Amino acid sequence: MKILRDLSELDEYVPGRGVEEVAREHGLDPDELAKLASNENPLGPPPAVEEAVREAAPTVNVYPTALHEDVRGEVAEAVGAPVENVVLGAGADGVFDTVGRAVLEDGDGVLTPSPGFSYYGMSARNLGGYESSYGLRTDDGGFGYDAGRIVDAYDGEKIVYITAPNNPTGTDTTVETVERVADEVDGLVFVDEAYHEFSDRESAVPLALERDDVAVARTFSKAYGLAGLRVGYGVLPDGMASAYRKVVTPFCVGGVSLRAASAALGDDGHVTETVELARWGREYMTENLDAPTYDTAANFVLVDVSPCDASEVAGELERRGVIVRDTTSFGLPECIRVSVGTREETRRAVREINDVYADARGESG
């Protein structure tokens, strides 16, 4: 009897490279590496989170029943939503998966931005669906959201993803664009606001509370510095939130993670400092990199290193101790994505990128 279904059409998610693997590969000291590949918080978590994790350690033998409800309430208060509309997930990815289980049936599709986060399509395919895409390239060679282009690309997909700001380009959009798309398509418009804290844009959360065809997902991984604990949340319309609770895995977020999220929500100053650093860093890179960059509203900068090969540039930077993301897997083989690090890391990255870029173009010396 055949046990596994045919997975030949599915891909594995490929994350940015970690410090340990790069250090082993190149014989480097891990402490001397600057990891700027995964859009993590260079300041780490808020101090209260470290204390909360230590205090939670003796309770890991207990299911976090009440904690789920407590944190949902705290998130609801923070974003101005009724607690009934707030759901939790193992990162924003967990929210995408669970909404997908509630919405997608075998053969249904999702419409995603290109370039964009690969997991949207992966999640749909894992559920027996398919992925179509709409382009973000503009006539001037940049990137931008255009409601008309999204609507033109729509062909009955059940979920339309809008990432605001977008990964890997940093492109932002407006609530008006989201609303126009929702008015014109028949599916769910799912707004991924993983990087929302770094943007000046208004959130789509009010739309998710007003309409039955808009949903929002966010994460504690970026601005709150909890990437290793996997906590995300969604703000969903009434009926969808109820359906979510029917298909979500039991205790989808662990107790330690929930206590950390609660502590992080109580430290607005840490988020403010993180956002200020991100805005400084993206401005510093834009002004000081010799390679062209794209406008960004996130905590990273997309850098065009053409005519050089991005994988070769990223590889040489690794050998120099700076880890960046080669965006070939995003369909951008001419670009690298550079996360904002500490001020020291960001300045170091700019120096090394400029040196490698000059060498690759034969301009050194």
Automatic annotation (TrEMBL):
CDD domains: AAT_like. The modification N6-(pyridoxal phosphate)lysine is found at residue 222. Coiled coil: none annotated. It catalyses: L-histidinol phosphate + 2-oxoglutarate = 3-(imidazol-4-yl)-2-oxopropyl phosphate + L-glutamate. Residues 34-353 form the Aminotransferase class I/classII large domain. Pathway: Amino-acid biosynthesis; L-histidine biosynthesis; L-histidine from 5-phospho-alpha-D-ribose 1-diphosphate: step 7/9. Its EC number is 2.6.1.9. GO terms for biological process: L-histidine biosynthetic process. Its cofactor is pyridoxal 5'-phosphate. One of its GO terms (molecular function) is pyridoxal phosphate binding. SUPFAM superfamilies: PLP-dependent transferases. It comes from the Archaea. It holds the Pfam family Aminotran_1_2. Gene3D superfamilies: Aspartate Aminotransferase, domain 1, Type I PLP-dependent aspartate aminotransferase-like (Major domain). Keywords: Amino-acid biosynthesis, Aminotransferase, Histidine biosynthesis, Pyridoxal phosphate, Transferase. PANTHER family: HISTIDINOL-PHOSPHATE AMINOTRANSFERASE, HISTIDINOL-PHOSPHATE AMINOTRANSFERASE 2. Belongs to the class-II pyridoxal-phosphate-dependent aminotransferase family. Histidinol-phosphate aminotransferase subfamily. HAMAP family: HisC_aminotrans_2. This is Histidinol-phosphate aminotransferase. It comes from Halorutilus salinus.
